[in-house]
Amino acid sequence: MGIEEIVKNANGFSDFNPMQQKALKKDLFNKSIVVSSPTASGKTILAELSALNSILNNRKKVVYTCPLRALASEHFNDFKKKYSASLQIRAAISIGDFDSSSSYLKNYDIIYSTYEKLESLIRHRADWLQGIGVLIVDEIHSLGTDRGSTLEMVITKLRFFNKNLQVLGLSATIPNSKEIASWLNADLVESDFRPVKLVEGVFLEGTIDFGKRKEKIESKSDDIEALAADTLARGKQALIFANTRKRSEGIAKRLASLTSRQLTESEKKELEKASEKALNVLEQPTEQCRSIAALIKNGVCFHNAGLMQKQREVIEELFKKNHLKFISSTTTLAAGINLPAYRVVIPSPYRYSGFGMEKLPVSEFKQMCGRAGRPAFDSEGEAILIAKTDFEKDDYFDYFINGKIENIDSRLGIESNLRFHLLAAISSGFIFDLDSAEKFFSATFYAKQFGNLSELFRKITTILQELEEMGFVHSSEKRIDVTPIGRRVVELYLDPVSAYEITEGLRKNKFNDLSYLFLISNTSEFYPLLSVSRSRQAELWERLQQEKHLLPINVELEMFSDYNLLSKYHTSLMLKDWIGEVSEQNLVDSFNVQPGILHAKMQRADWLAYAAFELAKLLELKEHLPRLNKMRKRLKSGIKEELIYLCEVRGIGRVRARKLFNAGIKSIAELKKVDLLDLQRLLPPKVALNVKKQIT
Ligand SMILES: Nc1ncnc2c1ncn2[C@@H]1O[C@H](COP(=O)(O)OP(=O)(O)OP(=O)(O)O)[C@@H](O)[C@H]1O
Ligand SMILES: [Mg+2]
């Protein structure tokens, strides 16, 4: 059976769609291709075709890369289910741990990974990368986003290694796809085919205007509710995009009484079960957990970065089963995924930036709309903006619906990006003098777009000097070399400036917990920082003054040059409360940091503490090593030092460990001694049993 038949059978398709046929005609199997086509047009199938051809016919490995872990997982699971067993294809996913070459990956045929993890694999010289046949870049329009420079580097480097590398770039509809294709020496497949018709319209005063037709719906005092009720009446589901986390929660709450009336008995039962699951992801539920659980029971929920990963999964699953009728989400659900939303509703296409409210980019708007009407679930779809006035309605039509999608522009010229990637390119040997630098950067998308590199080289000269002053490179007339510490900075995936600040900080004398925590909050990796409300500023400044001797920076100097100083201090205080065992709910109340955000921040903090440990080791700053080691464990579990050992037992987190400790069980030895029945008085019976099993 040929590859095309295999893919059709595995997916149960009778035929390829016009976009896919176009790509097949363009020699998808032998050439680099860039596809620019609408959402839901079936680009993933092209990835499957190309991957299988490379693995089965050419015996070459494939790497699939995309911007989101969740997206990588979805595609990985899907691919595995369809092809792994039947064709004996070994598929792996690699999305974590940035300081590892993950050498086991060489045993796999297809590796799913995020842009960042792939860059980190290159930095660790994963040599199997040199022999891959196809690089599949999903959402290649990400070149123009904040993470774009990393993607640009990944592509440039892999093509540098391997002149015959085939690239399959999958992009949303963008105006300059030709430019991207030309950069990659690829054929361009452009298509406006969307298997499911998607109409975009604006809702105002009870009427949805789709341009060609208008639809009146039953009005209610609240626009979102009116659209939701109408969706339910058609037996459909909707995704509502809110522009803040708070609003996403508010919208779900507003819709709860509407959905709860529509649930069948069996739906209620399912929702009840799932609600329990979502409630108990932490040892001690926060108000947000309770709110999520209550909403789920009512057949609606919100979805944003403040939720724990498990809760998000529960919610997505319930929506797919049509048990939840609506999800109100921030952009966490805006790209790439397949959900059964007949409607997408966008109540306000604005977003906060540092300077007030601004319009969403048109491209992002189109991505959101594209979540509606997915072929696996619906035969049509609607995306609806809500306007308040006629003026706004006209503006939405002009700007968003009929507006021009933005060009994708290289982000490599931004100084911080350039610094980060220049050091890495020197460390990996792509660059060793100015000629090689020119050769390397000539192969970038930046060079394609700007034609000449003079502006870039002006910046590079300054950056090289900085890197030399920081001790990360060593350059002479003839050569540019990385220093051992510079090389480690690259492997640790650190911004050189952060690494420098960390090493300088570690050299200071006075160090306590706060000093380490500030060291972490003071890095660009830890952005965004927690904001400080105006009412707390005076008090915080005062406290900062009192503790300034503990901060591993020159506070007098930074007070005038670093306008983030107070937020950094505030953020370190949050970390300090976390390792002081302040409850998650209290952290929400005093720092406005939701469990999901807290969790993500702690993963970051752990990585930065690890990086600080590694740098201290290299610099022989030995006194920091045991302390940083403990700090990592404390950050991971949110505990005081005395609970470290108890928390190493699976099933015991900060709350349970504290309970045991207070009951006099302070060590593993004591945990071993106590009998099961007594332990079950302190811990949930099942947990107690598992704990006993682990330690005996
Ligand atoms: N030839 C086909 N026949 C029937 N269904 C198809 C065909 N090709 C793809 N599909 C279905 O279309 C849906 C959308 O496909 P996919 O997720 O690949 O879209 P996409 O182009 O990647 O969209 P996005 O830009 O939103 O990521 C999937 O459910 C897929 O199974
Ligand atoms: Mg896709």
UniProtKB/TrEMBL annotation:
EC number: 5.6.2.4
Molecular-function annotations in GO: 3'-5' DNA helicase activity; ATP binding; DNA binding; hydrolase activity, acting on acid anhydrides, in phosphorus-containing anhydrides
Domain Helicase ATP-binding: 24-192
Enzyme class, spelled out: isomerase
InterPro entries found in the cross-reference section: DEAD/DEAH_box_helicase_dom, Hel308-like_dom4, Hel308_SKI2-like, Helicase_ATP-bd, Helicase_C-like, Helicase_Hel308, P-loop_NTPase, WH_DNA-bd_sf
Known catalytic reactions: Couples ATP hydrolysis with the unwinding of duplex DNA by translocating in the 3'-5' direction; ATP + H2O = ADP + phosphate + H(+)
Domain Helicase C-terminal: 223-426
GO biological process, alphabetically ordered: DNA repair
UniProt keyword terms in alphabetical order: ATP-binding, DNA damage, DNA repair, DNA-binding, Helicase, Hydrolase, Isomerase, Nucleotide-binding
Record: residues binding ATP: Q20
Similarity comment text for this entry: Belongs to the helicase family. Hel308 subfamily.
Function: DNA-dependent ATPase and 3'-5' DNA helicase that may be involved in repair of stalled replication forks.
Quaternary structure, from the entry: Monomer.
Protein name according to UniProt: ATP-dependent DNA helicase Hel308
Organism for this UniProt entry: Candidatus Iainarchaeum sp
